[in-house]
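Figure S4 source data
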Amino acid sequence: TDDHDQTSSCEMVVHSIVGPPVAICPDDIVGASVGRSYTIEGDGFDDVMLVSFEWTVSERPEESVANPTPTNEPVTNFTPDQAGTTILTLTVTDNEGQSDSCDVAVTSSGPPRAICPEHATVPTRQEHILVGDGEDDGSIVGWRWELLDSPPDSSAALGSENQQNATIVPDRVG
């Protein structure tokens, strides 16, 4: 109907068809953390009814033993135990025994990797800057330097030990 009170109409026919079930997986999870649990919401549909859901691990990092829990529901939880990519497969089966599967990849990383500066020979009583570096798949948000050993009778201490670069003034040879 328009503003002049004139109308028009049309018809359409919707035909439903019989078909096999369809498994539905969420988007891949990238940037997962080792040791953190993730809820993975799968689903499926069928023209009559689904009778089972099954989550399995299709691929996993070497030495990983992590599995989804529960394995027989559309929604499962998964906690990566190794850095790398784990492929979880959801298989749905209908009342006629037909099935369909889909995959979701969970890519996880471990802790950041500290890159220590090379060993240095520096004069005593002069400030030396220790340049820190690191690698991570995200961003590094904290730094901590620690003095593990020092010569006898040394009172040298680190400066800026919670920054990327720290300082030290050696006061004894060794």
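Figure S5 source data
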Amino acid sequence: SPDGIGILDRRGRFVTGNERFGWMHSCARVEELVGQSIRDFVTPQELSKLLGTVLPILQSGAAAHGVEAEIHLRDGSSMIDDYSAASIAWSEAPDDEAYIVSVRDVTERRQLLDALQVAREHLEARVQQRTYTLEAEIGERRAAEATAVKRARAAGLNAPGAHPIRLTARPGRA
């Protein structure tokens, strides 16, 4: 499975999981995780986010899906995971209750989405700047046209019998 699947007891300690789950936590074997706490892998801020988001859902009996958190691995690297979790009956856990957790590495997806957001903001700033520049140019053209019309009228070019001045755009020009 591309997902890591693990079981945590109610205190957030790893009970068991598949090999992918162990690999995702920098372990050669998933058994190396047994007894370790989720607190060993997340920052206090991420833990607070997970507990504040996921725990109330699980305590209500529902399953939690699509919760992202950054975890820190033994080798010092980090990755962004997408978590789904549900409460289960587990005879090997204290109180016969545990949480089954499905974890998917979404680091690359998150990095691409972040880069896309930066590019979108950059493009928006460029569009705003270009719009401002074009509006200024349009204002300058209108002012120049108004000045030209005033000068033409002052020179009597629109006097009775004179040919009126008509300003029109040439084909292919704005």
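The beta strands are 4-9, 14-17, 64-72, 78-89, 97-105. DSSP finds three helices and five strands in the chain.
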